[in-house]
Design a protein that fits this description.
Distance between the termini: 79 Å
Mean pLDDT: 89
Largest sheet: 11 strands, antiparallel
Low-confidence stretches: none
Length: about 375
C-alpha cells in the first residue's frame, strides 16, 4: 500500500512539473498540493511519517510556483517549511538548495542582505559536500546581488570564482555565462578609475568560450553612454584559432557603429584582425591581456564627410592601458591632406605624433 501511494504522489509531482513548464500555474499547484497530501498520508502503523523527503519536495515545488507568480510571501512560507523538514532529514544538498531558493526570493524582493545571507549558507554547504555545480551557481547568484548593490569589485570576484570552476569542469555554457556576467560587472561602474563616466549596458552573447576556436562573440549596446555620448552598433568577434606563434587570432567586424555627441553623429565600420599576444594563460585576470591589431575602418564625420582609416603598423593595445601603446594609423578625409598618427614605441602614455602636409605635431590623447 505504501508503494502504491508513493507512486500516486510521484505521478502528481510529474503532472505538476509538466503544468509548470507549460506556464499553467494553477494546474501545477493543484497537482503539487495533491502530491503533498498523498505523501502526508503515507505513515507507519504508529503514525510515523514515512516520506519526509517527498513532503519537503512538495513544499519546495509549491514555493517555486508561487515565486514564478510573484507571490513572494507564500513562496517564502513554503520554502521555509521545506527547509525545516530537510534539516530534520539531514540531506545537505537539499538543505543547500532550499537556502538558494530562499535567497532568490529575497533577491527578487531587493532584500539584498537576506539574499546574501542565504546564498552564503548555500555556498558553505555546497563547498562542504564538494558539489561543484552548486558552488559555481552560488558564486554567480552572490555576484548578481553585489552587482545590484553596485559593489562591482565583489561581483567580479564572485563571477571569476564561478568561471574557474566551470573551466575546470569544461562546462562551456557556464564559462560563457560567467564571462558575460564578469564583463557586465567590469562595465557597470558609473565612474571608472580613469575618470570616465559610463552608464547603460554592454551585452555579449557567446556561442562558446571566448578561447574556443570558431566561437563567435556578438557585442551590442543597450542605452550605453560614455561621458554623455551615446554609443550604438554591433561588434562580431570570431575566434580563428591560433597562428604559428601559438597566439589566438580573432577576426572582428564592427557594423553600424555610431557615436552621438553634441556636435552630431560619427559613423564607424571596421574590419580588423586581433592577435592575442599576452595574457591568454591567465584568463581570470583580463588586465594583463595585450593585443596587436591590424585592419581598416571607414565612416562619416559629424559634418557628413567620408573618411577611411588604415592601420599600417599594428596597434599594440593593452587592456590595462587607457591609450594605444604603439603602432601607426593613416586617416584620410577629402578636406585634409593624409594624416599619419604615430602612437609611439610601446609606453603606456598619452603621447602621440601626427604628420599632416609635411608637418609633425605632438598631440595629447584624451
Amino acid at each position: 500500500m505504501i508503494g502504491y501511494k508513493k507512486g500516486i504522489a510521484a505521478t502528481y509531482t510529474y503532472l505538476g512539473y509538466f503544468a509548470d513548464d507549460m506556464g499553467n500555474y494553477q494546474e501545477a499547484l493543484k497537482n503539487y498540493f495533491a502530491s503533498l497530501k498523498m505523501y502526508e498520508t503515507i505513515r507507519l502503523p504508529n503514525g510515523q511519517v514515512v516520506h519526509k523527503k517527498g513532503i519537503a519536495a512538495s513544499y519546495n515545488n509549491i514555493g517555486i510556483v508561487y515565486k514564478e507568480q510573484g507571490n513572494y510571501p507564500k513562496a517564502l512560507r513554503n520554502y521555509f517549511i521545506s527547509l525545516k523538514i530537510r534539516e530534520s532529514i539531514g540531506n545537505k544538498k537539499d538543505i543547500a538548495n532550499s537556502y538558494n531558493n530562499i535567497g532568490m526570493v529575497y533577491y527578487y524582493q531587493s532584500n539584498y542582505p537576506d539574499a546574501l545571507k542565504n546564498y552564503f549558507a548555500s555556498l558553505k554547504i555546497m563547498a562542504a559536500i564538494g558539489n561543484k555545480i552548486g558552488i559555481a551557481n552560488s558564486y554567480n547568484n552572490t555576484g548578481l546581488v553585489y552587482l545590484n548593490q553596485n559593489n562591482f569589485f565583489e561581483a567580479l570576484k564572485n563571477y571569476q570564482a564561478s568561471l574557474k570552476i566551470y573551466e575546470a569542469m569544461d562546462d562551456k555554457k557556464g564559462i560563457a555565462n560567467s564571462y558575460n556576467a564578469a564583463a557586465i560587472a567590469l562595465l557597470s561602474a558609473a565612474t571608472g578609475s580613469d575618470g570616465v563616466v559610463r552608464s547603460g549596458k554592454i551585452l555579449a552573447h557567446h556561442t562558446n568560450a571566448y578561447t574556443d576556436s570558431a566561437s563567435v562573440t556578438t557585442v551590442t549596446f543597450d542605452n550605453y553612454y560614455v561621458n554623455s555620448r551615446l554609443i550604438t552598433g554591433t561588434e562580431i568577434i570570431v575566434n580563428a584559432g591560433k597562428n604559428f606563434a601559438n597566439h589566438h587570432i580573432f577576426n572582428v567586424q564592427i557594423q553600424n557603429g555610431n557615436l552621438y555627441s553634441a556636435d552630431g553623429v560619427t559613423a564607424y565600420n571596421s574590419i580588423q584582425q586581433r592577435e592575442w599576444i599576452e595574457g591568454d594563460n591567465t584568463l581570470l585576470d583580463p588586465l594583463d591581456d595585450i593585443y596587436m591589431i591590424t585592419g581598416t575602418g571607414s565612416g562619416t564625420t559629424t559634418n557628413g564627410e567620408n573618411y577611411t582609416l588604415v592601420i599600417t603598423t599594428p596597434l599594440r593595445v593593452a587592456v590595462d592601458c587607457a591609450w594605444v601603446e604603439s603602432g601607426i594609423l593613416e586617416y584620410t578625409v577629402p578636406s585634409l591632406p593624409l594624416v599619419t598618427l604615430n602612437y609611439g614605441n610601446g609606453a603606456c602614455d598619452y603621447q602621440a605624433t601626427a604628420l599632416c602636409g609635411g608637418y609633425t605635431t605632438n598631440i595629447v590623447m584624451p
